[in-house]
Specification:
single chain; about 220 residues; Nucleotidyltransferase, domain 5; five-stranded mixed β-sheet; 6 helices; 10 strands; globular
Length: about 220
């Protein structure tokens, strides 16, 4: 089965195609402001690159948030429209879980932070002893200043808010907290595909009309 995965939750989006647990290809999207123009052309380019056609898509997984309001709306609307047009199953995946899942088999807890603006962060704490994260705390929205007290070493910290608030975090975090490498701090559609496949195998599909973004905050 060909699985399409979409992530548009942050300013670095991507698409991925996978089959039977194997990644066939991934396509990076330029920026959140370009999603509306480049999402469907990017899908067409990715399908051509792996020698497949739209009608070959058998299931869709989409990053459900939290994250960028506009990006999430575009990504979910695209995923739901395609699921209806192709009559294929659809699953949503937490963006915080996607970020934690990029460190499978990690020995320590993984803290995930995303920028919620106004000096707030979206926060989740996970263990990932295998390929699927296990939640320990959250997801929730926190004032930035409340975050350090929630993070106890040994711990790996990841997520795009590391870039947005690095000056504060360098001063406030306890010694012994590791930072994820910069290239691993944004969600990837390839990881959405891995988690989405696991949800599909568990039968956790959602009718398109019932799948909504998980904003964790009201619109600003």
């Amino acid at each position: 089965m060909l699985l399409l995965a979409l992530d548009t939750a942050t300013d670095q989006g991507s698409l991925a195609l996978a089959a039977d647990g194997r990644l066939l290809g991934e396509y990076s999207l330029e920026s959140a402001g370009a999603y509306l123009q480049h999402l469907l052309p990017g899908l067409e380019a990715l399908l051509q690159a792996v020698g497949r056609a739209p009608q070959d898509i058998g299931a869709i997984a989409v990053s459900q948030g939290p994250g960028n309001f506009t990006g999430l709306r575009i990504g979910l609307a695209t995923a739901k429209g395609l699921a209806l047009a192709l009559s294929c199953p659809l699953v949503g995946v937490s963006t915080l879980e996607v970020l934690a899942a990029q460190f499978p088999f990690h020995p320590h807890p993984i803290g995930v932070i995303m920028d919620a603006r106004r000096r707030e962060v979206f926060f989740g704490l996970y263990r990932c002893p295998e390929e699927t994260p296990q939640p320990l705390a959250g997801p929730e929205r926190l004032p930035l200043e409340a975050l350090p007290s929630r993070l106890t070493p040994p711990l790996l910290l990841t997520g795009p808010a590391l870039n947005a608030y690095q000056d504060f975090l360098k001063q406030a975090l306890a010694p012994g907290i590791q930072w994820a490498p910069p290239e691993m701090r944004h969600p990837r559609a390839a990881t959405v595909a891995r988690l989405g496949r696991a949800r599909l195998l568990q039968g956790l599909t959602v009718p398109p009309a019932r799948l909504s973004p998980n904003y964790l905050r009201p619109a600003l």
